[in-house]
Amino acid sequence: MTTKGAVPVNLGNKYSLIASAVATAITVSGAAQAQQQATKQDKKVETIIVSGTPGGAGIRKLDASFAVTNVDAVQIERLAPKSTADLLKSVPGIWVESSGGESGANVFVRGFPGGGDAPFLTVSLQGSPIYPAPTLSFLENSSIFRLDETIARMEGLRGGPNPVVSNGQPGLTTNFHLKRGSEDTEGTVKYTTSDYGLQRIDGVLSGELSDDLYYMIGGYAKRSSGIRDAGFTSEKGHQFTINLTKEFDNGEFNVYTRQTDDTGAWYLPTPLNVEGVDAGFTQLGTLNRQAVIHVAGQDMEIDLGEGRGWKGHVSGGSLKLELANGWQLIDRFSLTNGDANTYGLVPDGAATKLASVADDGSSATGAVTGTVYDGDTWVQNYGRWVVLKDIEAFTNDLAISKAFSSVNSAFGIYTATTSAKDWWSLGNSAYHVLTAGGEALTGIECNSSADGCGFNYDINSTGDATTVAFYTTHSYQATDALTLDLGLRSEKHEVDYSVDEGLDGTIDKFVTYDERKTSWTLGGDFKLDDQSGVFARMNKGYKMPYFDDFRDNYGAYQGGERLIKEVTQAEIGYKYMGESSDVFATLFANEVQGDTFVRKPGDPAEILTNEAMGIEVDYNFNHSSGFSVNMNATWQKTEITESPNNVGNEAQRQPGWQLRVTPSYEFELGDMFATVYGTISAVDDRFGNNENTVVLDGYEKFDLGFTLEPTEQVKLMVSVDNLTDEQGITEGDPRNADAPNGRYIMPRSVKLSVSYSF
Fold this sequence. Notes:
Blueprint: E1 2-3, H1 16-35, H2 41-45, E2 48-49, E3 59-60, E4 68-72, H3 73-79, H4 84-87, E5 94-97, E6 106-109, E7 121-125, E8 128-129, E9 135-136, E10 139-140, E11 151-158, E12 172-178, E13 186-194, E14 199-210, E15 213-224, E16 235-248, E17 251-264, E18 270-271, E19 290-295, E20 298-303, E21 308-322, E22 328-339, E23 342-347, E24 352-353, E25 363-366, E26 372-374, E27 378-404, E28 407-426, E29 429-433, E30 441-442, E31 457-477, E32 482-501, E33 509-527, E34 532-543, H5 547-552, H6 554-558, E35 565-577, E36 581-597, E37 606-622, E38 627-642, E39 657-669, E40 672-683, E41 686-687, E42 694-696, E43 699-709, E44 714-721, E45 729-731, E46 741-744, E47 749-757
Parallel strand pairs: 7-12
Antiparallel strand pairs: 1-42, 2-3, 4-11, 5-6, 7-8, 9-10, 11-12, 13-14, 13-47, 14-15, 15-16, 16-17, 17-21, 18-46, 19-20, 21-22, 22-27, 23-27, 24-27, 25-26, 25-30, 27-28, 27-29, 28-31, 31-32, 32-33, 33-34, 34-35, 35-36, 36-37, 37-38, 38-39, 39-40, 40-43, 41-42, 43-44, 44-47, 45-46
């Protein structure tokens, strides 16, 4: 991380290796394409997508007038994502900061503004949002979803008709599809270990229970001390999923449940100017995981080793029916309930030498070991934060549709009830020795004070939100080549919310909110030939406020602000799906009005308008020789156009460009099949704050993998993440942008797995 005006070293050569690799991949792809023999054209052209359609009705990907990225189970395995958010890096136009662990990622969409979390991301399972509020403080959608062998594929839709259907998300909707049973009984058992002590078992089994009744069951159990070793079992969890499908003559009925209990250490920004503090460093350890904090006049014992996680379930289902006279009905429903708690050691300011804070100006004593540390010891102030969050949501999306000659019409109603009960104690800070798992100190006055060494913010809150939206979509086949479509949505959003700040039993903030908005989308698709086409689209949508939006911006709300983010987007795209390759390229432009940014609780809100424009490319090539490559790339220009102080600056933490190339080669090794694959990632410099005074340097990252299949049933897999142990920075310190803290990407790690399928 550097200050504004710093000159990057060797900028001309910084990404030369990446550029060479991309050029080589494209050259090889072109040569191989000219020599291809077997084709996959039919399979590709007939790819069916359900994202962005009324009720999740399927359409051919080539016919869609919007861009959707598909990632199947094989690709997920090769990408070896560390978390659900990590997988989203495979979607063009998306910038992901997944260096905080399995939970608590920051996800940015196409230059949309944001100071953290994932305000413009919706994660759906089987077509239903797992939690209608995209982001609450300390909770974004990907935090309550875990990947395992039960996932068949993911669809990623950004922009397009998103503002009209489902929960009206104007940004990115990722839709995960579960594997489902068939007439054949199939299963996989997989064991995974790693160089950081991971022990994990996955399993999945599917088949037919009776005539036209199919099942899939699966899950995992895991334990490890974490990629950043905490010295104890800091990551542990298990998950169980069951998916049942009954087929009828005129449709099908599906139900599923996904039970999860999974927690992991919360990795936080660390100092960038202290020797020995690198990508493998974590504040958490045996000497500091247990602590006593003073809350509402009482001492409370906590275990920070509980980290961040999800203990709850996501359950739901769908009914699809072919009715009389060509009518179709689709109903999707989902229920989510559980606890998404957070415990962590949060840095408060820069690292400093002990002499500057010790009572005697020269030394202090370890509160656990009794070690005497001299004044030259590096220390840092850590807040011991506790967030207890009980969430629940129920959604239902009912749509009916019918084709009338050249017009296809659909009418739907989407309803959602969302609740959250929060208990927080933020602050509780004390100076700790700046080593991995460093202990707290005695001999520093504020360490022994009930108020700690910094701010404190404690709340008890409860909130309920109800959304009812009526929507309709219509497509018109103007000619054999030209299709036009229109979508409208009228949404009523209500919120009731109250907050006790200070945990004194007094309600300090209360909200009764009722707002209605109309969203729209208008698109056109022109088929150039059987393999290619172009499309154009405009839309206008809204991100409605939820509970934390009111608490953070209570003064603005009382002053008449409705706290609604208004999003306007335009897209022009080209698509090609050929015999061995497909290309989707989309030009986009957007404007987001009414964005609010609060650095930490109690700080005043900044209200901003952001604009962005750019291009995203999604390219895939598969050749019968065994060579394949995927490339996704994004270039964008962002600008803050309305702000109290930062007009003309770039949006914070958003790269001007990013590139990801994943080549692979399948070949025979004696009587066995083998695959070598890898991923090359590169990202541009970013600004760590809206003031554009803190520069987060760009970086490149290399991953490598190898699979070997001795038989049709057995597969061995080795994957290396961050092969060169790059010390890239994903973000600075969002609570104090000027402090020299940052969050590193994950250090190098190696995984080994062996699986048996039958």
